[in-house]
Amino acid sequence: MFLKKEKALSLVCTVVISVFLLVGCGSDEQLPTSADIGDKGLAVPIIMYHSVINDTESTGDYVITPEMLRDDILYLQSNGYVTVSIGELIDYVNCGKSLPPKPVVLTFDDGCYNFLTEVMPILSDTNTKATLSVVGAFSKKEEPCNVQSSYYSYLTLEQIKQISKCGYVEIASHSYNFHSLQGRKGSMIMDGESYEEYRSRFLSDILTNKLLLEEYGVEMSIYTYPYGFVCEESLELVKACDFKASLGVEERINYLTADTDCLYCMGRYNRPASMTTEDFMAYVFSE
Question: Exposure string (b/e) for 104-123, b if CB count within 10 Å is 16 or more?
């Protein structure tokens, strides 16, 4: 079954890529100039969040409180930064659309249920955009559950659908079931696995997640590597499946240029609870 899906996906990817190369974005417009664009390109920091819980005792490297998130957003706004989506970065590079002088991206990994209960109200109150990366298998398992907890639950597919309609949150694929360190490390090829075997399994995972979310009206053009594990074999497969951008976990500023490769494996700064907003932002913008 997966093999048939994989072959169909390969055909679709080939057609889509061919059409895209022919028509592009329908514009010959070049990247806009800006006083904030340096020699390397337009600098765009991306901040990576995971779980947000209203419990200071539960915080850690990947868990912060709503108050910390709000402080981060208010800091960015008071210093002239404007949150943008990954989709806007794609349009900037591929179509020459403009971006604000000081763009910044906020991403939230894994599709935690507390994104709905804790994060969404803050985003709405502060007029902030965000990117939510969801793991299909995690959300699929939530479907039969009647009770969800901000501590350990994930968003259901129906909840993801509703979030995607809000206008300020875009949805990215965090794999269907590669978010694991058991056997395979994220999206990495395994020792002893042939390229053909890896290609079939990787594309089947991507296709499963795409089809699952599309059933709920959610389109995804961004791939977020589980745990940031990237291998050479995965790089071209992500592009071949018409993902216009991908996210890693290397802590570095991204520089946007006319080269579309700048949109892949973009770096992100993980936000731990151990740092104050001021110290964390000083670290992010120290480059």
Answer: bbbbbbbbbbbbbbbbbebb
According to the model, what pLDDT value does residue 225 have? 93
Q: Which two tokens stand for residue 50?
A: 């995971």
pLDDT tens-digit readout, 196-255: 998 999 998 999 999 999 999 999 999 999 987 888 889 999 999 899 999 999 999 999
Asked if 84 and 99 touch (Cβ cutoff 8 Å), the reply is yes
Domain positions in the chain are: 35-154+161-284
CB 280 within 8 A of CB 271: yes
| Architecture of domain 35-154+161-284 in this structure | Alpha-Beta Barrel (3.20)
DSSP symbol at 119 = I
Q: Rounded to an integer, what distance in angstroms lies between the CA atom of residue 82 and that of residue 73? A: 10
Calculate mean pLDDT across residues 142-165.
Answer: 91
For 257, residues 6+ apart whose C-beta sits below 8 A from its C-beta are 31, 40, 41, 42, 93
Pull the structure tokens for residue 156. 């259901």
